[in-house]
What we know:
Largest sheet: 7 strands, parallel
Structural class: alpha/beta
Order of helices and strands: EHEEHEHEHEHEHHEHEHEHEHEHEHHH
Number of strands: 13
Number of helices: 15
CATH class of the largest domain: Alpha Beta
Number of domains: 2
Strand content: 15-25%
Distance between the termini: 8 Å
CATH architecture of the largest domain: 3-Layer(aba) Sandwich
Mean pLDDT: 94
CATH topology of the largest domain: Rossmann fold
CATH superfamily of the largest domain: Glycogen Phosphorylase B
Amino acid sequence: MNKLVCFHLFNDYSGSPKVLRMLLGELAEKGMQIDVVTSRGEGALSDLQKYENVRMHTYAYRFSDNPLVTMARYFGVQIYTFFFALRYLFNRNTTFYINTILPVGAALAGRLTGKQVIYHYHENAFAKGAFYKLLARAMQALASEIVCVSAYQCSFLNRKENVIVVPNAVSEAFVMRLSPNPSEAFARRCILMLGSLKRYKGALEFIELARRMKEYQFELVLNETPENIAVFWKENGIEQLENLAVYPRQNDVAPFYNRASMVLNLTDKNQAIETFGLTALEAMSAALPVIVPTVGGIAEMVEDGYNGYKIDVQELSKVEECIKKILSDKGLYIQLSENALMCSKRYDLQAMTERIVACI
């Protein structure tokens, strides 16, 4: 292989483009020729332009409040990337790398032109709607290899050949910006959550916790624009709380972990399953205890009472009690923090890169 062509639908600062950015950065450092095809605008993939051996190809794409408009734009991008991918028809030593199950147009073109097509599968399509299940079937038919991010996620696939499990990692550069200090973190009494405004991600429940627990500081980082956040606040009649700070999309979240005491993930398991949980890993890398859902790849990362706790968002009072328990017992907190940091070492970027390169 002398070229890797990567397709990612929407370039933002969510988990899947951040993982792709880490992987491509490692490969670019090793001298690999890489083309990246993604949406225009700022996101985790944007700074790959600093590498001379990486070429960026962008198109216009964004979400709409109208699902029909979003779907029309999505299919338009699939048609565009299908024909774009045909430019590599006569490039024999080229591999297509499909990040998430969404870029199906490029995957189809790759298969038709005899390319190796590797899917990096981040979602759990079988916990979503019929359209995602259809995309998962297409992936299993089109992929030369499939990289899953957790054993939980992998268990839902009918296909078993050329499927590997490679957990995500965080970059060394990110870890170097963290400053773990359990004693100081315990004293901050600050609870952090990073997510989006999708209903199942738990933003409203996080706000409810802040309303109930005025003795703690809450910080909510949303992968959204300030305008969308303002609309969400108005539509849901959310009151302003003195102990709640809300931030729009960020290109560097390390400072938030450095001033937090613990991190929550309140994804509703009845509406979506976290296949991995990058924010939980980032938190553990900062020596922060976590509270996560009871199922999914994210649950594989946490052992109750060891590096955090597993509690579903439906039991919000239990989440509240657990926060109070952790932040009122310094001995327990420091034990959880030290174990969280130790557990984070299992998720090594170099090991992740080597396994995916071997797959390629």
